[in-house]
Target: Cytochrome c domain-containing protein
Amino acid sequence: MRLGFLICTASFAASLAAWPIAPLSPARAQLAGHGGPVRAITISNDGKTALSGSFDTAAIRWSLATDAAEQVLRFHSDAVNAVALLNDGRMATAGADGRIAVWTAGRQEPDQVLEGHRGPIAALAVSPDGSMLASASWDHTVRLWSLPEGTQSVLEGHSQNVNGVAFAADGRSVVSVGYDLTLRIWSLPAGAPEVVTMPSPLNAVAVEPDGEIVTGAADGKVRMLTSDGAPIGEVQAAPTPIVALASSRDGALIAAAGIGGTVAIIDRKARSVLRTLVGPGLPVWSAAFLPDGETLLTAGADGKIRRWNARTGNPIGASLSGTTADPLAAYAGDQGADVFRACVACHTLSQREVPRAGPSLAGLYGRKIASLPGYQFSDALKRMDIVWSPETVAKLFEIGPSAYTPGTKMPEQRIGSAEDRRALTDFLTRATSK
Model:
């Protein structure tokens, strides 16, 4: 069986399997600087600043007045899956490495690092008064962090990955959603949760100014609930999983971003899709409204951030084309390149390319595992004696990374066909020796 479409870091488990994505007319890109898919984006209350996080392990602070990167934040050893702008002007980034870094603009190192999660962090939320940060993790927990003290409390109960978290507008509760089909409303400071079982695994959640809870699910539906969890409406936003939600500041519009590459703009009160924004046909991982309630930023698998008028559906000016060059265009018709296509989101073939979330494969054969300079490998990999060759790469994909390289951050994947494994290793021989 050919290796399917791969999301190399915090994908949403089985809901993000290989979906057929048709080519669509591209919108234009405004912000380009990440070396991999953009996983998260948020906008400051004054609309002047955006903060994005990427599979390339970096976060970028952007000026929305000039569309220029003002600071690149490098700390995490894996993909940056979640970002937040704090009330005091600082920033928070969280990653697949399970850590949260809190930053002051202009400083090259975090002010503090919050540790405790035992799995990738998928989402962050800031309390209305700015004193608390909530994090949702694939370790099945939500953690509440006191920003002044750095202390934490753990909310346990989810049985699978927790993908989203949001504070109620009054700060008296926090809502979490996960792949276990449950939405949990946690009364603060330490109340037992109200548990609501949903029809489909949940990937995202938002709480509106009036208290209404909005969820994005693997079945492509956006569902609305009262503040105590009673269902009050739903909208079929896409035929494929919804992976991110954004609400306008007045709560009138919801943007539901999907793995299929489109963003549905929903009139929340009417419970209907106003229009659908069409990008380059690649997964859209994140979205955020500017304070005007009409301008929307979207970002996703091609590493670009796009600006839209959400009410008209039109892209807003840009100088950069939204069409991404195919890094494998030179290998059209090559069976091995076709197999490798699932890996290009994380790995480059040449040192000349912008780094992505995984190590470059340039000069792969003959290199000892975990020895590439400049990349942060796990201690488990550093202790191994594997030297990469066509045989060892084939073995990696025959039995899977977790069995062949225990302790790896690489997602579990196998190539069942010996012919496809051989095509892949032959392709790497040609492509990584240049």
